[in-house]
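Q: What changes when 5-O-phosphono-beta-D-ribofuranosylamine is included in the input?
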Amino acid sequence: MTNLLTLGVLASGRGSNFQSIIDSIESGFLKARVAVLISDNPWAYAIERAKRHNIEALILRPRDFTDKDSYYSHIAQELEKRGVELVILAGFMRVVGRPLIERYTNRIMNIHPALLPSFPGLHGQKQAADYGVKISGCTVHFVDEGVDTGPIIIQAAVPTYDDDTEEALSKRILKQEHRVFPYAIKLYSEGRLRVEGRKVIIEGKRKDSVIINPPLEK
Ligand code: GRF
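A: The predicted holo structure follows.
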């Protein structure tokens, strides 16, 4: 029997990335299991997705805790209790606190909808469209204490167009998010990611960590 990597997913919203991870597990692409979904938002659609796939869902709201540290200590405890090995931020709209980062150093992955280090923070797609870059994309990275500053694991690029709206660009990027996030988790599950300072070395056959995509139809 193969060993399954135990994941804990944190999400605040619609959870389409969470769904792409579930789908990758169910198709056999990813040898993992999701032990728990934690949401800071009781109305997150991600919770519905968890229920449909028999995944335990916990709602933990920061306002029910005395401060940020106690919130993230509690989250870390819940994850550890369930044997979570890798934490996935799938649209978790908060800057993660130190207690969780300390207990899961280089074991928390986030996806950001821009090519970091450009356009960190909120609305990466809008920032890129407004700036007028010709290529944008998404980035999977390990999480440190900064805002989207941790070591980069893999990126996928998409073209931008002069008449792009935020929605159109977001859609094009999201399609790539759903490819690269499960792929990054797969690399981790195979023990192929080595962090050296701020670089992530991918061991084995794959030498590049960028997926350049052919132009997609608008
Ligand atoms: C995605 O654009 C992701 O890059 C960002 O938040 C959004 C989450 O979307 N971190 P979803 O909830 O996974 O559909």
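Observations recorded in class: The pocket of 5-O-phosphono-beta-D-ribofuranosylamine is lined by residues 11, 13-17, 90-91, 111-113, 138, 174, 177 (CB under 6 Å).
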